[in-house]
Write a structure and sequence with these properties.
Keywords: Signal, Transport
GO biological process, one term: peptide transport
Number of strands: 25
GO molecular function, one term: peptide transmembrane transporter activity
Radius of gyration: 26 Å
Structural class: alpha+beta
CATH superfamily of one domain: Dipeptide-binding Protein, Domain 3
Number of helices: 17
CATH topology of one domain: Dipeptide-binding Protein, domain 3
Strand content: 15-25%
Helix content: 25-40%
CATH architecture of one domain: Roll
InterPro entries: SBP_5 (IPR039424), SBP_5_dom (IPR000914)
Family: Belongs to the bacterial solute-binding protein 5 family.
Strand order of the largest sheet: 1-10-9-8
Largest sheet: 4 strands, mixed
Amino acid sequence: MLAGCSGDGDSTPTSGDGGDGGDGGSDGGDGGDGGDGMSGVNDARFRLFDHADAAPPERHLNPWNPAQTGCWWPGAAIMDRPAAYSPSADEIINVMIEDWEMTDDTTLEATFRDDYTWHNGDQFVAQDYAMEQQIELEILKASAEDGENAHVAMESIEAVDDQLVRVNLHTPYAPKFAMQNTIADYHGNLARGVFTKHDDDQWSDWHDRLRNSSGDDKTAVIEEITTTSYPKITDNPIGHGPFQIADVGDNIIVCELYEDHPNAENINFREFAMRNFPNTNQPVQPYASNQIDATAGGFPVQDDLKGQLPDTHSLYREARSANSLFTFNCGANNDYDTPVNDRNVRKAICHVFNRQGVDQLLQGVKRRFEWPPCRVPGRILELGEHESTEWVQDFEMYGQNNTERAAEYLRKSDFEQDSNGNWLTPDGEQFELGFLNATERVDFQVLQKNLEDFGISVTQESVDTATFDERRQNGEYEMIPDGSSANGITAMWAPGLVVDWLSSLAQFSMEQTIPMPIGDPEGSSGTKDINVAEHIQSWQTTGDSEYHKELMWWWNQHVPEHENMYEPDAGAFNTQNWSLNAAPEITEGIDDALFIATKVGDGISYTGN
C-alpha cells in the first residue's frame, strides 16, 4: 500500500515520502528519480479532481451498470481506447490503433497495434475490443423495435485476427462519420476505454449467453450485466492503460505508471491520483488551495473568485462550450395552440431581443453569442477557421432590438398594433407570451423588458422539476430556457441530439421548408423542402458540406431555438509543477483530455519548478 493513501484521503503525499498527513504538498513531488523503476521518472504525483458521485471504494468498471460507475474515474486512466474524436477540431486521433480505412462505403476496418498489454502481461488483442462492442450491440438489439436499427451506425463487428477488427455499417457513411459513430465514439462509458478481456471468465460467460439466448433467458442475462458491479476497483482489476491501480482510499484513487505501456517512455512522473471531495462537486476551492493540480471542468469562474486562483493557473478545453438558448414551442408534436407555433412570430420575438442587454449580467463566465443563430459553437465562430464562419455572414441576424423588422414579421401573420402600442393577435386579443421556469436566466429577463417595451405582455411561471419535464414533453409551454453543450461542428448535429432530443424539446417536425437562395429570407428564388433527419444522414453519408449549410439555414430561418450566450466548458491546470504539452486538438476539444494526454506523446510532464 502506498504511504498516505488509505483512510479518508485527505493526505496525498508523493510516493515514498512517508506520508505526513498533509494536503498533498505544494510542490507536486520531490522531483527525485524513480528509484528502481524507469530512469528519468520522477516520484511525483499528478492530482486530478474526481467528479464522480460515488465514493471510490464503491465503484466498479462495468460500463453497462450506471450505478456507482468508475468507468471515468479511474477507468479513463487505466484503460485505453482505440481512437479519440475531437469534436472541436473535427479530427480522429489514433490511440491503440495504428491505422483505419473504409474498404467500401459500409465496411470499416481498423488495425490495433501489437505492443499493448494488459497489466498482467497478457497481450491486448482485437478480440477484447470486439467483445465489448458485441455485448453492446446485443443489449441494444434487445430493446430495439422491429425493423429498427439498434445502433446509430454499426450493424455488426468481428475480430478478423488478433489485430484487425471489421465493422459492418447498416448505412453508407463517409469515412470520418463512420469512425466517430463507431470506433472513435465519444459518448458515454464505452468511449472511455476497452473494459472487456475476451478470455476473462465473467465477460466470456456474459458474452456467450447474450449471443446464444433469446426471450426470457436473454432478458435475464441483460438484467445481470446491467446490475452487477464487476469488476470492483477494490478487487485489483487490470487494465491496459498507462497507469494501473495502486491503492483505493475513501476519497482518493492512486494509480502508478505501468512501465510496459507503449507510451510509458514519454511519461516522467510516477503517480496519477484522482481526489474526490464528497461535500462538493465544485473544484474551485480545492484547486485554489493547491489540493489538486487540475480539474476537468468547472472553469472559468466568476470575477469575484478569480483572485483566489494561483498565479500559475491556466485553462484548457476552452473550445468546449455550453450554450444558453431561448426554446420555442414550434407546435408540430402537440395540440398546444400558441402564437409561437408560427415561425414569423418566433422571428419577431428574436428581433425584439437586445442581446447587448445581457453584457452587464454575465459575471465573467458567460459570453454574449454575437452571431446569427446557426447551430455552430461560439468558440468555432470566434476562431473563424471553419467554412461555416463564412456562411453565417449572410444569415439573418437577430438580437439587435430591431423593432421595425419585428413588426413586419408580426403583420405578415395578421397581428396588429393598437393605438396604445399593444400588439394584438389575429383574434384581436392582447398578445401575451408565457415563459416557463426562466426566472433565473438573465437573457429571459432582458427579453421580457424588450417585449414589454415593444407592446407584448409577458408572464413568468415556475413549476417543480417533475411538472416542468411533463409539460415540456407534452409541449405545454410557449418558451422555455435551454442550456446545451456546443462542442463541435458535427457534434451539434448528431442524429440522437437533433432528431430525437431537440425535436421533442422544441416540438418541431422533420419536414421543413427553407427560403432560397441561402442568405435571402424573402426567398427570391422560391423555397426548398428538406427533411432534417434525411439531410443529416446525407451529410454523414457523403461528407458534402452543402447539407450542413442548408441545415444551418433552416435553423436560422425557423429559429426553434435562439443562441443568446455561451460559456467555455473548460478545465483548470496549474503550471507550477506541471506542463500540458498535448496537441490542441486534444487539450482544447476532448472531454477527457487529461487522460488522453497521457496516452499520446509527452502530453503531461512534471517540471518540478
